Amino acid sequence: MVGYNIDGPTRDRVMKLIEEKDRIESEIRDQTAILESNNVNMHDTLVDSEGFPRNDIDVYKVRHARHRIICLQNDHKSLMRKIEEGLGEVYSDFSRSNVNTSTSQTQNSSLPYYTNGHGLNNSHDSGNEQQCFAVVGFVHDGSPADIAGLTENDELLQFGSVNYNNFSDITQVHNVVAHSVGQRIQVKVKRDRQVLSLTVVPRPWAHPGLLGCQIRRITPS
Hints:
Layout: H1 9-37, H2 59-97, E1 134-139, H3 144-148, E2 155-159, E3 162-163, H4 171-178, E4 185-191, E5 194-200, E6 213-217
């Protein structure tokens, strides 16, 4: 996949947002590791049966990590919205720059698909547009799916090794998740007119499940 070779302030601003998003995700992983090293999650009690601070964990570090994770998750969600808006501007700039172009040219991307984030693909101009096989339902705040940038109504084009051509049952997606705990899964979704490339890491979190979102197959009309 390629993006579009558009230079200028919009591209620079989006790239800086992407760098900041990656930094935040790295810090979230670091703070989550503190909770995991103490064998607690975001909601486990920090006091014993008598109401005293537990002596089997570092209560101060756990409290600080929880507070920091909440702050970082809020910052992350805000950044993701700004990145999506910026990518939409890049798409519009690209469309305008090609209004008077008589020949179509394939260009290497200066705004590439990147690890753990979004990419932009002009799927409308492709004769081999990928087809969706499933759709994302609800997404819990603070879940691995939420941190990865998945949102409700995203249409799945690819989930790890699963795509439209080899998809037969939603259990294929469940199997990919179950065998990829703590590992990165490359996910491609269609959102409005954009194709986004994301990376989700299934892991235990504050609630049941490894993703914290619903994925259901698309029923042919």
